[in-house]
Each structure stands twice: as structure tokens, then as C-alpha cells.
Amino acid sequence: MQIDLRTVSIKPQRQTYGHIERRFGDKPASRYQEGTFDLQPSANFHYRPTWDPDREIFDAARTALKMQDWYAFKDPRQYYYGAWTLARARQQDTAESNFDFVESRNLGALLPEDVRQLALDLLLPLRHVAWGANMNNASVCAYGYGTAITQPCMFHAMDNLAIAQYLTRIGLLLGDPGALATAKEHWLYAADWQGLRRVVEDSLVVQDWFELFIAQNLVLDGLVYPLFYKTLVEDALSLRGGTAVAMLTQFMTEWYAETAKWVDAQIKTACAESPENAALVRGWIAAWQSRALDALTPLAQRALGERAGAALDDLATQFAARVAKCGVPA
Amino acid sequence: MDMQVPKKKLGLKERYTLMTRDLAWDTTYQPKEKVYPYADYEGIKIHDWDKWEDPFRLTMDAYWKYQAEKERKLYAIIDAYSQSNGHLGVTDARYLNAIKIFLTAVTPLEYMAHRGFAHVGRAFPGAGARVACQMQAIDEMRHAQTQIHSLSNYNKYYNGFHDAPHMFDRVWYLSVPKSFFDDAITAGPFEFIVSIGFSFEYVLTNLLFVPFVSGAAYNGDMGTMTFGFSAQSDEARHMTLGLECIKFILEQDPANLPIVQRWIDKWCWRGVRLLSIVAMMMDYMLPKRVMSWKEAWEIYFEENGGALFKDLARYGIKMPACAEQIRQEKEHLSHQVWSAFYNYSGATDFHTWMPTEEEMQWLSQKYPDTFDQHYRPRFEFWREQQQKGNRFYNKTLPMLCQTCQIPMLFTEPGDPTKICYRERDYKGSKYHFCSDHCQHIFDNEPEKYVQAWLPVHQIYQGNCFPEGSDPTAPGFDPLAAVLEHYRLNAGRDNGDFEGSEDQRNFEAWRGMAKRND
């Protein structure tokens, strides 16, 4: 039975703010809508940046991509600060209990030694990859155009930082600070990591923010996460008694599945806008994809041995299918 | 069974280092200058970013946990407040005009801070500093959005809240806050952090935040009060970051001192000019007053700020030179600014009014040396005129200061009967200033300030009419055209509070909620 509680009812003058009404009509708006659309100042800037004197403070020309309306880049998750924080706090609760579970039952010590070592060798240098991703997403937020896409990039940057921190905790749980130092040595000097480090460092100097979005969030993450967290951790290590590692990386796996949907929606929107955009996106993907795959090859061999070739082929095939689904022309 | 060797417990600092700056490395495939291209051009010398002391040690897992808890509470209160028509509980509908100013003038600055901190959170070569700035970047987004969400319910019932982002880019008085932040974000990363992180967040924030949030608490506005209280712990973090930045920069190289001192001088003055709108809000717009502007200035700047500058003296930092002029102006500021807004009430998205007799008595008591002598007679005259049906609206556009963009309404230091004007020729054009300090700021960077988008100039140049307007057409009403361009509904959003739709609706709705007729 419906219980009809009553409050004094006053007819509102309007349902939402004017700029929201012009986009979505005069009806109650969501917090995502009110907190996102048209929030970035867009006209009558007073001074040119001393750090970029040829452009306005917010300037659509910082990418070669062209959009009629930059707020077409909607976030399917509808994240504003509150929604994002609540979602991540819930995932953090799960991650915390996973860490507790592994720690309290001493599962780290029960891992077969070769599995533990492989996990440390291959996961810990990813701290630095995530750190690069943090910088790149901060960059997209700072120099991108329109709150609809810059806002989730800042959330993404903080997620990347969190992932680097979870990896640090994994290092401390399965190893010790020395393990982190060794992994950093590898990242800096070991031959098989240099390809990936070069790609990451090259991404740090990309000037076009939409190219950077693609290089980092679609291509690099789109190859690194499936290879390391899915193929290596969930499949290969679990078969060898390493389920505990999968528990410790559950955050990354779930995060990747969630954020990939958002990334894909952005690519789709960019390509659907015009054939020129689609061609740009295609070119950027092609350039970064081949470099990233080359960089990952020695690491895949370390991780998977003779199955590396097949795994990399699968990875490339799945990535190509994902890209095609986003409307990127072949 | 194997004996498990207990792991050595890491200290908090050591652990936090592993969680943040140890993630960074010195790039070798790309030169440092390309990875951090904005780090050097301001002339600030940093020799060792490792000396950076993390102002707080918050990892993302803890951050999410604390912030989610705060968000849950805040939105529960916002919902309850809206559902119960909490807006009818405010002292009186005049109060709403204070939060209209907040939404149009302050909330967009929170957004700008979000982007600005993302910029420095990428640009600083030091990893510890970057992480701290990035956290502030998301906090500032939080503040912008919690404000928009809290005030959304007011927008449903009252006028003037409806188009903040559009107005921020266009409306004349909003070019004051906009140019303030544009100035900061277009500066280099070090000046940005000194301007916003230190001068604004650390030295002046209490003069913005405390008056609005306490004003809300005093006037029954639980929505605003709640986001204010909820932001408090974020603000505390931002203040420690601002202070750490200043100390770090000064400790790195003695050559940094004169640069930083110039920035502090500039930004204290820019900040105080920006806060003149808060002064007016405190003294004139809150039906239930918290304290006078003068009292707030004495507590938060002269006492607290004085102690801070004493503390910074060991680095060679001096109290900004403008402090003396501000000390004199505190007696006059709010009255002069309220007079100007009363004049130009035809072109604002909020209402103005003349204080009641009781309120004038409060003002006399708080400003015994100035109010009765200089301002009461003017206000009584205006009130008299209004009662005769001659409410005064100034329709002549004012001259603006090239730096702070406030109309030339301030008086000469030491002579409250004379408007202060300064002017400067630069490359064949004349530029006008409200004060010596604004002129000095211009003199230091003329190429920056000649770019200013001055609303009055723009109106005269015909850049503030709706698209397709023909100013030569017979009967063309320029003021009406400008208001339309602002998306300001003349007769509803602007003008005197007395007789406004807000006033009528509030009375009627409060009656519905409290009586049974």
C-alpha cells in the first residue's frame, strides 16, 4: 500500500538552471547534468596564458579534433564528484577486505615462489606506468576543452594514482621496500622494460590533448590492463596457485572494465562527429598501437613464455574489435 | 611450520613516500624541459624537489573513505532541506541575494581553481607537490558542484540564480572575480600557487568563507551552511598546502624572495579588491548580521594575518605594503560598494535596497567614525526619493579600473569625499586605475593588463548586444539589449528588492506554509 505523506507543495518557477534547460528542457535535471554542462568558462577571457601565449585559457584549438559541441562527450557513468567518490569508496572497501583476507591468512607466503617472484617482477614496474597515466590525465583535464571530458579525466588521474598505490601495497605485502626498489631499477634499466618506458615518456610530451587521451586511455591502458591483469594474473598465475594475486588486483580489473566503457563512449562520440575526426582518431590509434604492442612483446614473453605470441595476437585482435566497435574506420 | 619473519613496520612518512614520490622517476627518453616545460620561465629557482615536505599524507584509499562519508551526509541534508521547503525558513527573502552573488561570483572560481590546480598538478616537476595539487583539483570540483547542487533548489523558486556560467563570462560586475582568476591561471605555475594557494587560500579565505557560511548559519540557510561546513576539512588541507609552498620556495633559493614578495603584494591587493563584494554582503545583505566587515578584517587579517607575516619574517617576507591603505578603507569599503550596487541595480541579477532605520543604527554603531558622517545622509536621501516614487537608478556606465575592473568608486586614502583616480599612458593609450596599488600591478606587467576585457568598453564597442541587434535602429534601447545579452530578465531579476517578485512570492509561500487559510 502506498503511504501518502504530504508536504506543503509550492509550484516551482523553473525546474533547473537556464543552461541545463536549454540543453535538456525544463524538467528536473540530474546532479550530473547540473554539475557538468557548460561549467567551463567559454568567452571573454581577460588575458592570454603566459605559458601558452598563442591560445586562450580554455581553447578548443589545443587539439586537432573539431566538435560542434564539446559537451557531446557525455560520461555514461554520469560521474560528478559525489557519484565518483561514492563508487570508488565502495570499491575501496572491497579492495581493503581482499588485502585483509590475503594478509590475515598469510596467503602471500603460501604463494609458490616462482609465482610470487613473477608477480613482483611484472606488476611492480606498472606503478610507474600508472604514474605516467596520472600525469597524462591531469594534463587532459588542465588543457582539454569542456567539463564533460575534462572532469572525468581528473577523476581518472586520481584513479591512476590509486592504482599505483595499490601496486605499491602489493609490493609491500608480497615483498618489502626492497622489492619496490628492484622493480624501479628494472623500470629504469632492464632491457625488457625500456620499450614501455620509452612509450610512456613519449606520451608525457604529447601536445594534442585528444591524441594524449587516445594514446593513454585507449591504447596503452587498452593493451596493458588485459595483458597484465587478465592474461597474466587471472589466467596464468591463477592456474599456478596464484589466486591471491588476483584478489589483490581485483580493483584494477573492475576499474578497467568500468572505465573502458567511458573511454569507448568518448571515441565513439569523436568519430561520429565527422569523417575528419574519425580519420584523426584512426591515425592516432595506429601510431600508438604498434609502438605499444612492440613495447609489450618482451614483457609478454617474460610472463607467458612460449604462449606469448598467441597471447599478443589475441590481444591485438580483441583490441582491433574494440576499436571497430567504437566506429573507428578500418 | 616455517617461522614467519615479521615485517619491519614502515613509518608513516616512509610509507607515504613510497606511495607518492617514489612512483616518479627522472625521464631519460625525453628531456626534463619538455616534460615540465613551464617550470623555469618565472625565474623561481628550485634546486631540490626532494626537500618538499608533504603537507598532509593522504593516500587515495583514505581520501575516498573520508570524502565519501562527507558526501553521504551532505547530500542527505541537501535533500531533506529541499524536501521540507527549507528555503522558507531563511530570515527574510533579502538574504537570498547574498547567495545569488555566491553562485554567480564564487562558484565559478571554484571551477577555475579545479582547472588551475590540475594545471599545476601536472606542471610542477616535484612529484610530492603535484600529488597535493591534484587532490586540491578534485576538491575544488567538489566545492563547485556541492554549491551548484545546494543552490539548485533556490533556483527553482527565486530569480537570478538561473544562468551563472553564462553571466560569469559576461555580466559587468562578474568581470571582477573572473579577471582575478584569469590573472592567476594565466600566470606561471609558481605565481599561481602563491596567488591562490597562499594569498587567497591561506591569507584571505577566512574573509570569504567565514562570512558566507556563518551568514548562512545565522540566517537559517541550512543548504549553504552544510556545504560550507562540509568543505571545512578540505579547506584546512588547502591552507597547509599554500603555506608549505611558500616556505618551500623561499627555502630553496634566496633569489626567490623578491619575486615571491612582489607576488604576495600583488595578490593581497587583488584579493582584497575582490573581497569588497563580501564586505558589502556582510554589512548590508544579511538580515541577521554575523559581524561587521571591519571587525572581520581586524580579526582575520590584522590579527591572524599579522601573526602569519611575523612568522614569515624569518624568510625576509614583509607585510604587503597595501595593508595600510586597507586598514584605512575598512571604515568605508562596504558603504561605498553597496552605494555603487544600489546605483546599478538595474543591471544586476540580484536586488538591492536601502537599509531600514534599525539597520542604519547598527551601521552607525559599528562604524562610529564614518557612517553617520559620510553615508547615512546619502542613504536617507535615496530612501526618501524612493518613497516618493523616484528610486534612483544610474544609467550612465561607470569608468572601470584597468586592473581590478571595479568601477571607480573608491575614495582617496585620507579623503572620503574625493574619488580616487590614477591614470597611465602606455603605448599611446590611456589606462585608468582605482588606486596606486592597482596601478603598480599594471606597471609591472602592462602587456598583460592591456588585454583586459573591460565590460564597459565592450558595451560601448557594441560587443554586448544580442546577435543581430541593430544599434542604429530607431528606438534601440542599449540597456535593454545588454540585459538581454546577459540573459537577465529585467523587472524580475534586477532592481529594488521592495516590490520584487522574490519578495512577493516569499511572503505568499511562507504564509502557505505557516497558516491555514
From TrEMBL, chain A:
Alphabetized SUPFAM superfamilies for the sequence: Ferritin-like
Lineage of the species this protein comes from: Bacteria, Pseudomonadati, Pseudomonadota, Betaproteobacteria, Nitrosomonadales
GO function terms (MF aspect): oxidoreductase activity, acting on paired donors, with incorporation or reduction of molecular oxygen, NAD(P)H as one donor, and incorporation of one atom of oxygen
Protein name stated in the entry: Phenol hydroxylase P1 protein
InterPro entries referenced in this protein's UniProt entry, alphabetically: Ferritin-like_SF (IPR009078), MP_mOase_hydro (IPR012078), Phenol_Hydrox (IPR003430), RNR-like (IPR012348)
Keyword Membrane (UniProt): no
Organism: Methyloversatilis universalis (strain ATCC BAA-1314 / DSM 25237 / JCM 13912 / CCUG 52030 / FAM5)
Keyword Cell membrane included in the entry's annotation: no
Keyword tags: Monooxygenase, Oxidoreductase
Leader sequence residues: none
TrEMBL record, chain B:
Domain (YHS) ranges: 411-453
Signal peptide start and end residues: none
GO MF annotation, one: monooxygenase activity
Keywords associated with the record: Monooxygenase, Oxidoreductase
Taxonomic superkingdom: Bacteria
Protein name: Phenol hydroxylase P3 protein
